Amino acid sequence: MRAPSKKGVGFYAKSFCPGRKASPKRMPLQPLTQNALAFKIIFRKKMNNLYNQNDVKGILKRLENLQPNLERQWGKMYIAQMLAHTNISLETALGQNSPKRMFIGRIIGGFLKKKFLNDKPMDINSPTDKNYVFTDKKEFEKEKSKAIQSVKQFYENGAEKCTKYPHSFFGNFTAEEWAVLQWKHFDHHLRQFGA
């Protein structure tokens, strides 16, 4: 059996956090270091999002390949209604509309936020906010063109022009979280129509 080190806990803590005193009980909370910020940024880059140029190109290519006669794999929306649905959702992230917070979202939205901001695809037949449901007939080419333009606009605007208004269900989002959610939302509905 190996003898315990004489260097103690403080030595190891100082080697990982130079300049900080170590406590054998607990290290005090410190502001994020440059390395922690870099880790956070690297983690976010692994998530598909609408601030990543390659991810945007992929979504735009899939949108451009859509045809009006594609059949849905699940759900109730027709393809033009789906495009209108994704358009109004992206308009929320752009700050062009601000739906009221849902009561149930105020209670459980924060807890479910992590489930939606992971690297897994959105669940099929996820519930939809009534503000984003369209039952009337929509014009396919108009909605497709608007979707392409809105995705480009969101990317070009960057994080500084993203809405500061909370999501109607999940609550407060950073610009990066909006970008992840919007990519996942487009991916979900494009898969819905086999694109």
Structure description:
The protein is mostly helical. It has helices spanning 8-16, 34-46, 53-64, 79-93, 103-116, 140-157, 175-192. Helix content is 51%, strand content 0%. Helix 3 packs parallel to helix 7 (175-192). It starts with 7 loop residues before the first helix and ends with a helix. 23% of the residues are buried. Mean pLDDT is 79; it is low at 4-39 and 41-45.
Quick synopsis:
The chain is mainly alpha-helical and 195 residues long. The protein has helices spanning 8-16, 34-46, 53-64, 79-93, 103-116, 140-157, 175-192. Residues 4-39 and 41-45 have low confidence and may be disordered.
**Average of per-residue pLDDT values:** 79
Which stretches are low in confidence, meaning pLDDT under 50 for 5 or more residues running?
4-39, 41-45
* Rounded radius of gyration (Å): 22 Å
Helix content: 40-55%
N- and C-termini, Cα separation = 60 Å
The ordered string of helix (H) and strand (E) elements is HHHHHHH
Q: How does the helix and strand content classify structurally?
A: mainly alpha
Number of strands: 0
Strand content: under 5%
Number of separate helices? 7
Main β-sheet, in a few words? none
Task: Choose one word for the global shape.
Answer: globular
